[in-house]
Automatic annotation (TrEMBL):
Cofactor notes: Binds 1 zinc ion per subunit.
Species assigned in the record: Kineococcus radiotolerans
Entry protein name: Small ribosomal subunit biogenesis GTPase RsgA
UniProt gene name: rsgA
Names of required cofactors: Zn(2+)
Keywords: Cytoplasm, GTP-binding, Hydrolase, Metal-binding, Nucleotide-binding, Ribosome biogenesis, RNA-binding, rRNA-binding, Zinc
Location of the protein in the cell: Cytoplasm
PANTHER family: SMALL RIBOSOMAL SUBUNIT BIOGENESIS GTPASE RSGA
Protein's job: One of several proteins that assist in the late maturation steps of the functional core of the 30S ribosomal subunit. Helps release RbfA from mature subunits. May play a role in the assembly of ribosomal proteins into the subunit. Circularly permuted GTPase that catalyzes slow GTP hydrolysis, GTPase activity is stimulated by the 30S ribosomal subunit.
SUBUNIT field: Monomer. Associates with 30S ribosomal subunit, binds 16S rRNA.
The family this protein is said to belong to: Belongs to the TRAFAC class YlqF/YawG GTPase family. RsgA subfamily.
One MF term in the entry's GO annotations: GTP binding
EC number: 3.6.1.-
Gene Ontology biological process: ribosomal small subunit biogenesis
Length: 357
Protein backbone atom coordinates (compact mmCIF):
# COMPACT_ATOMS: atom_id res chain seq x y z
CA UNK A 1 0.00 0.00 0.00
CA UNK A 2 1.45 3.45 -0.88
CA UNK A 3 2.66 5.39 2.18
CA UNK A 4 0.29 8.34 1.62
CA UNK A 5 -2.63 5.93 1.86
CA UNK A 6 -1.13 4.30 4.95
CA UNK A 7 -0.94 7.68 6.70
CA UNK A 8 -4.37 8.89 5.56
CA UNK A 9 -6.09 7.94 8.87
CA UNK A 10 -3.85 10.50 10.61
CA UNK A 11 -5.47 13.41 8.74
CA UNK A 12 -8.25 13.63 11.31
CA UNK A 13 -5.53 14.18 13.93
CA UNK A 14 -3.94 17.10 12.06
CA UNK A 15 -1.50 15.34 9.70
CA UNK A 16 -0.76 17.44 6.60
CA UNK A 17 1.91 18.01 3.95
CA UNK A 18 4.16 19.83 6.40
CA UNK A 19 4.10 16.81 8.72
CA UNK A 20 4.98 14.63 5.73
CA UNK A 21 8.15 16.69 5.32
CA UNK A 22 8.94 16.71 9.03
CA UNK A 23 8.37 12.96 9.23
CA UNK A 24 10.70 12.26 6.32
CA UNK A 25 13.42 14.41 7.92
CA UNK A 26 12.89 12.67 11.27
CA UNK A 27 13.03 9.20 9.76
CA UNK A 28 16.25 10.05 7.95
CA UNK A 29 17.84 11.24 11.20
CA UNK A 30 16.89 8.26 13.39
CA UNK A 31 19.17 5.25 13.36
CA UNK A 32 16.67 3.01 15.13
CA UNK A 33 16.58 0.18 12.64
CA UNK A 34 13.42 -1.71 11.78
CA UNK A 35 10.08 -0.24 10.76
CA UNK A 36 9.07 3.19 11.98
CA UNK A 37 5.47 4.38 12.19
CA UNK A 38 4.26 7.94 12.92
CA UNK A 39 1.77 8.44 15.74
CA UNK A 40 0.26 11.33 17.69
CA UNK A 41 0.40 11.42 21.48
CA UNK A 42 -3.11 11.47 22.94
CA UNK A 43 -2.29 11.10 26.64
CA UNK A 44 0.91 10.78 28.67
CA UNK A 45 1.46 8.35 31.58
CA UNK A 46 4.53 7.58 33.68
CA UNK A 47 6.84 5.59 31.40
CA UNK A 48 4.24 5.24 28.65
CA UNK A 49 1.81 7.17 26.50
CA UNK A 50 -1.38 6.53 24.56
CA UNK A 51 -1.00 7.25 20.86
CA UNK A 52 -3.09 7.19 17.72
CA UNK A 53 -1.43 5.46 14.76
CA UNK A 54 -2.59 4.70 11.20
CA UNK A 55 -3.30 1.20 12.56
CA UNK A 56 -5.36 2.40 15.52
CA UNK A 57 -4.76 3.37 19.17
CA UNK A 58 -1.92 1.86 21.18
CA UNK A 59 -0.18 2.30 24.52
CA UNK A 60 3.57 2.43 23.98
CA UNK A 61 6.63 2.65 26.20
CA UNK A 62 8.53 5.91 26.65
CA UNK A 63 11.70 4.94 28.57
CA UNK A 64 12.51 7.65 31.12
CA UNK A 65 15.63 9.65 30.34
CA UNK A 66 16.02 8.18 26.86
CA UNK A 67 14.02 10.75 24.90
CA UNK A 68 14.90 14.42 24.44
CA UNK A 69 12.50 16.11 24.40
CA UNK A 70 10.16 13.83 26.32
CA UNK A 71 6.84 13.32 24.52
CA UNK A 72 3.93 15.49 25.59
CA UNK A 73 0.28 15.57 24.54
CA UNK A 74 0.04 16.70 20.92
CA UNK A 75 3.49 15.51 19.88
CA UNK A 76 4.05 13.45 16.73
CA UNK A 77 6.43 10.61 17.51
CA UNK A 78 8.13 7.74 15.74
CA UNK A 79 7.33 4.20 16.88
CA UNK A 80 9.56 1.22 16.44
CA UNK A 81 7.25 -1.71 15.81
CA UNK A 82 9.65 -4.64 15.84
CA UNK A 83 11.07 -4.18 19.34
CA UNK A 84 11.06 -7.51 21.23
CA UNK A 85 9.33 -5.83 24.20
CA UNK A 86 6.62 -4.29 22.04
CA UNK A 87 6.17 -0.94 20.26
CA UNK A 88 8.13 1.93 21.77
CA UNK A 89 8.75 5.59 21.03
CA UNK A 90 12.18 6.23 19.52
CA UNK A 91 11.93 10.01 19.15
CA UNK A 92 9.81 13.13 18.80
CA UNK A 93 9.26 14.69 15.38
CA UNK A 94 10.37 18.35 15.22
CA UNK A 95 7.63 20.45 16.79
CA UNK A 96 5.83 23.39 15.26
CA UNK A 97 4.87 24.93 18.59
CA UNK A 98 5.02 24.07 22.29
CA UNK A 99 2.98 25.50 25.15
CA UNK A 100 4.96 25.54 28.41
CA UNK A 101 5.07 27.22 31.81
CA UNK A 102 7.73 27.45 34.50
CA UNK A 103 7.93 24.44 36.80
CA UNK A 104 5.63 24.69 39.83
CA UNK A 105 8.47 23.39 42.03
CA UNK A 106 10.38 26.67 41.67
CA UNK A 107 13.18 24.96 39.77
CA UNK A 108 14.59 26.65 36.66
CA UNK A 109 12.87 24.23 34.30
CA UNK A 110 9.81 24.30 32.07
CA UNK A 111 6.74 22.11 32.27
CA UNK A 112 5.32 21.34 28.84
CA UNK A 113 1.54 21.48 28.59
CA UNK A 114 0.95 20.62 24.92
CA UNK A 115 2.80 20.51 21.60
CA UNK A 116 1.94 21.37 18.00
CA UNK A 117 -0.93 23.63 18.97
CA UNK A 118 -2.39 26.13 16.49
CA UNK A 119 -4.92 27.90 18.75
CA UNK A 120 -4.84 28.46 22.51
CA UNK A 121 -8.26 29.15 24.02
CA UNK A 122 -7.94 30.95 27.36
CA UNK A 123 -11.12 30.18 29.30
CA UNK A 124 -12.06 33.00 31.69
CA UNK A 125 -15.17 32.77 33.85
CA UNK A 126 -17.19 35.93 33.36
CA UNK A 127 -18.66 35.44 36.83
CA UNK A 128 -15.33 34.71 38.54
CA UNK A 129 -12.74 36.82 40.31
CA UNK A 130 -10.06 36.07 37.73
CA UNK A 131 -7.86 39.13 37.55
CA UNK A 132 -6.74 40.86 34.39
CA UNK A 133 -3.16 40.17 35.48
CA UNK A 134 -3.84 36.43 35.38
CA UNK A 135 -5.45 36.73 31.95
CA UNK A 136 -2.32 38.52 30.76
CA UNK A 137 -0.18 35.65 32.07
CA UNK A 138 -2.22 33.12 30.11
CA UNK A 139 -1.96 35.27 26.98
CA UNK A 140 1.82 35.63 27.37
CA UNK A 141 2.19 31.84 27.56
CA UNK A 142 -0.09 31.43 24.55
CA UNK A 143 1.72 33.99 22.38
CA UNK A 144 5.09 32.57 23.37
CA UNK A 145 4.06 29.09 22.23
CA UNK A 146 3.78 30.30 18.65
CA UNK A 147 0.03 29.68 18.55
CA UNK A 148 -2.83 32.19 18.22
CA UNK A 149 -4.63 32.95 21.49
CA UNK A 150 -8.39 33.44 21.82
CA UNK A 151 -10.23 34.36 25.03
CA UNK A 152 -13.48 32.52 25.73
CA UNK A 153 -15.49 34.43 28.32
CA UNK A 154 -17.35 31.47 29.79
CA UNK A 155 -20.54 31.54 31.88
CA UNK A 156 -21.50 34.85 30.27
CA UNK A 157 -25.19 33.97 30.56
CA UNK A 158 -24.88 34.29 34.36
CA UNK A 159 -24.43 38.06 34.00
CA UNK A 160 -26.96 40.67 32.95
CA UNK A 161 -26.24 42.70 29.83
CA UNK A 162 -24.67 45.66 31.64
CA UNK A 163 -22.38 43.41 33.71
CA UNK A 164 -21.30 41.44 30.64
CA UNK A 165 -20.56 44.62 28.69
CA UNK A 166 -18.37 45.82 31.55
CA UNK A 167 -16.39 42.57 31.72
CA UNK A 168 -16.01 42.45 27.93
CA UNK A 169 -14.72 46.02 27.84
CA UNK A 170 -12.12 45.34 30.53
CA UNK A 171 -10.84 42.10 29.02
CA UNK A 172 -10.85 43.39 25.43
CA UNK A 173 -9.00 46.50 26.56
CA UNK A 174 -6.04 44.39 27.71
CA UNK A 175 -6.23 41.45 25.28
CA UNK A 176 -4.41 43.27 22.49
CA UNK A 177 -4.81 41.56 19.10
CA UNK A 178 -6.92 38.77 20.60
CA UNK A 179 -10.56 37.88 19.95
CA UNK A 180 -12.68 37.82 23.12
CA UNK A 181 -15.85 35.76 22.69
CA UNK A 182 -18.61 35.42 25.34
CA UNK A 183 -19.98 31.89 25.57
CA UNK A 184 -22.75 30.32 27.64
CA UNK A 185 -22.28 28.16 30.72
CA UNK A 186 -24.81 25.56 29.58
CA UNK A 187 -26.22 26.38 26.15
CA UNK A 188 -24.79 26.86 22.66
CA UNK A 189 -24.50 30.65 22.91
CA UNK A 190 -21.25 31.91 21.45
CA UNK A 191 -19.84 28.48 20.58
CA UNK A 192 -20.46 28.99 16.87
CA UNK A 193 -18.71 32.37 16.94
CA UNK A 194 -15.84 30.86 18.91
CA UNK A 195 -15.43 28.13 16.29
CA UNK A 196 -14.83 30.85 13.68
CA UNK A 197 -11.61 31.76 15.51
CA UNK A 198 -10.30 28.21 15.90
CA UNK A 199 -8.05 26.26 13.57
CA UNK A 200 -5.99 23.10 13.65
CA UNK A 201 -5.14 21.75 17.07
CA UNK A 202 -6.84 23.71 19.85
CA UNK A 203 -5.80 23.61 23.52
CA UNK A 204 -8.02 24.87 26.34
CA UNK A 205 -6.28 26.48 29.31
CA UNK A 206 -7.52 28.45 32.29
CA UNK A 207 -7.96 28.45 36.03
CA UNK A 208 -9.82 25.72 37.90
CA UNK A 209 -13.56 26.22 37.59
CA UNK A 210 -13.30 28.38 34.47
CA UNK A 211 -15.57 26.02 32.54
CA UNK A 212 -12.99 24.46 30.23
CA UNK A 213 -14.53 20.99 30.32
CA UNK A 214 -18.03 22.37 29.71
CA UNK A 215 -16.66 24.31 26.76
CA UNK A 216 -14.81 21.24 25.49
CA UNK A 217 -18.02 19.22 25.59
CA UNK A 218 -19.84 21.98 23.67
CA UNK A 219 -17.17 21.96 20.95
CA UNK A 220 -17.26 18.17 20.78
CA UNK A 221 -21.03 17.98 20.75
CA UNK A 222 -21.00 15.33 23.47
CA UNK A 223 -20.45 15.04 27.23
CA UNK A 224 -17.01 13.46 27.12
CA UNK A 225 -15.30 15.44 29.87
CA UNK A 226 -16.48 15.55 33.48
CA UNK A 227 -17.60 18.91 34.82
CA UNK A 228 -17.69 20.05 38.43
CA UNK A 229 -19.28 22.61 40.69
CA UNK A 230 -17.67 25.92 41.65
CA UNK A 231 -17.64 27.43 45.15
CA UNK A 232 -19.86 30.50 45.14
CA UNK A 233 -17.77 32.15 47.88
CA UNK A 234 -14.65 32.62 45.78
CA UNK A 235 -15.50 31.35 42.31
CA UNK A 236 -12.89 28.60 42.54
CA UNK A 237 -13.48 25.11 41.23
CA UNK A 238 -12.06 21.64 41.60
CA UNK A 239 -9.87 19.87 39.05
CA UNK A 240 -12.39 17.82 37.08
CA UNK A 241 -9.85 17.33 34.28
CA UNK A 242 -6.85 15.54 35.81
CA UNK A 243 -4.79 14.85 32.70
CA UNK A 244 -4.26 16.35 29.27
CA UNK A 245 -6.10 14.51 26.52
CA UNK A 246 -6.23 15.00 22.75
CA UNK A 247 -9.51 14.33 20.94
CA UNK A 248 -10.55 14.86 17.28
CA UNK A 249 -13.51 17.25 16.92
CA UNK A 250 -16.20 16.92 14.24
CA UNK A 251 -15.47 19.47 11.52
CA UNK A 252 -11.71 19.02 11.36
CA UNK A 253 -10.41 20.44 14.64
CA UNK A 254 -8.33 18.56 17.21
CA UNK A 255 -8.95 19.45 20.87
CA UNK A 256 -6.69 19.21 23.93
CA UNK A 257 -8.36 19.71 27.32
CA UNK A 258 -6.04 20.45 30.24
CA UNK A 259 -6.35 20.51 34.05
CA UNK A 260 -6.93 23.91 35.63
CA UNK A 261 -3.75 25.88 36.29
CA UNK A 262 -3.56 27.25 39.82
CA UNK A 263 0.12 28.17 39.60
CA UNK A 264 1.17 30.03 36.49
CA UNK A 265 4.86 30.84 36.59
CA UNK A 266 6.47 32.26 33.46
CA UNK A 267 9.77 31.26 31.92
CA UNK A 268 11.43 32.69 28.82
CA UNK A 269 8.52 34.63 27.37
CA UNK A 270 10.39 36.43 24.59
CA UNK A 271 7.83 37.36 21.95
CA UNK A 272 5.03 36.38 24.32
CA UNK A 273 5.71 39.37 26.56
CA UNK A 274 5.97 41.74 23.59
CA UNK A 275 2.76 40.50 21.98
CA UNK A 276 0.77 40.54 25.23
CA UNK A 277 1.85 44.08 26.01
CA UNK A 278 2.05 45.38 22.45
CA UNK A 279 0.41 48.63 23.58
CA UNK A 280 3.13 49.23 26.20
CA UNK A 281 5.86 48.32 23.70
CA UNK A 282 4.42 50.67 21.07
CA UNK A 283 4.30 53.64 23.46
CA UNK A 284 7.77 52.83 24.86
CA UNK A 285 9.30 53.48 21.43
CA UNK A 286 8.81 57.20 22.11
CA UNK A 287 10.69 57.18 25.44
CA UNK A 288 13.69 59.52 25.51
CA UNK A 289 16.05 56.73 26.61
CA UNK A 290 16.21 53.39 24.81
CA UNK A 291 16.81 51.56 28.12
CA UNK A 292 14.00 53.37 29.94
CA UNK A 293 12.62 51.33 32.86
CA UNK A 294 9.38 53.37 32.94
CA UNK A 295 9.83 54.21 36.61
CA UNK A 296 11.01 57.82 37.02
CA UNK A 297 13.08 58.68 33.94
CA UNK A 298 12.52 62.07 32.32
CA UNK A 299 10.87 61.83 28.92
CA UNK A 300 9.21 58.46 29.64
CA UNK A 301 6.37 58.11 27.15
CA UNK A 302 4.78 55.25 29.10
CA UNK A 303 4.48 57.29 32.31
CA UNK A 304 3.14 60.19 30.24
CA UNK A 305 0.49 57.87 28.77
CA UNK A 306 -0.54 56.83 32.28
CA UNK A 307 -0.74 60.47 33.44
CA UNK A 308 -2.89 61.25 30.41
CA UNK A 309 -5.25 58.36 31.22
CA UNK A 310 -4.40 56.56 27.97
CA UNK A 311 -2.87 53.59 29.80
CA UNK A 312 -3.55 52.19 33.27
CA UNK A 313 -0.89 51.99 35.97
CA UNK A 314 -2.09 48.42 36.62
CA UNK A 315 -1.16 47.49 33.05
CA UNK A 316 2.40 48.77 33.50
CA UNK A 317 2.71 47.04 36.89
CA UNK A 318 1.68 43.74 35.29
CA UNK A 319 4.23 44.24 32.49
CA UNK A 320 7.02 44.93 35.01
CA UNK A 321 6.07 41.92 37.13
CA UNK A 322 6.31 39.53 34.19
CA UNK A 323 9.59 41.15 33.12
CA UNK A 324 11.05 40.53 36.59
CA UNK A 325 9.87 36.91 36.65
CA UNK A 326 11.34 36.34 33.21
CA UNK A 327 14.69 37.81 34.31
CA UNK A 328 14.65 35.64 37.45
CA UNK A 329 13.98 32.50 35.42
CA UNK A 330 16.80 33.38 33.00
CA UNK A 331 19.25 33.89 35.88
CA UNK A 332 18.22 30.59 37.49
CA UNK A 333 18.56 28.82 34.15
CA UNK A 334 22.09 30.18 33.69
CA UNK A 335 23.00 29.10 37.23
CA UNK A 336 21.51 25.64 36.68
CA UNK A 337 23.45 25.17 33.44
CA UNK A 338 26.65 26.32 35.08
CA UNK A 339 26.10 23.85 37.95
CA UNK A 340 25.41 21.05 35.48
CA UNK A 341 28.65 21.82 33.64
CA UNK A 342 30.62 21.80 36.92
CA UNK A 343 29.09 18.48 37.93
CA UNK A 344 29.86 17.00 34.53
CA UNK A 345 33.53 18.01 34.77
CA UNK A 346 33.72 16.55 38.29
CA UNK A 347 32.33 13.30 36.94
CA UNK A 348 34.88 13.28 34.09
CA UNK A 349 37.81 13.99 36.43
CA UNK A 350 36.66 11.34 38.87
CA UNK A 351 36.38 8.76 36.09
CA UNK A 352 39.85 9.75 34.84
CA UNK A 353 41.38 9.30 38.32
CA UNK A 354 39.74 5.90 38.66
CA UNK A 355 41.20 4.78 35.31
CA UNK A 356 44.63 6.28 36.05
CA UNK A 357 45.23 6.00 39.83
Amino acid sequence: MPEHETLEPLARLGWDADWDDRWNAFRASVAAGGDLLPARVVRVHRGACDVETPLGPQRVATPAGHLVPEPTTGDWVGLRLDDPDGPRVVGVVARRTVLARASVTGRSTEHQLAANVDTVVVAVGADSRTTLGRVERFLALAWNSGAQPVVALTKSDLLDEAELDDVLARVRGDAVGVAVVPVSATGPRGVGELRNHLRGTVVLIGSSGAGKSTLANALLGQDRFAVGAVRSADGKGRHTTVTRELVPVPGGLVLVDTPGLRSLGVSELGEGLERTFADVEDVAVDCRFSDCSHTAEPGCAVLAAIDAGVMSARRLDSYRRLEREQAWFASRTDARLAAERRNEWKRIHKAHRQRHP
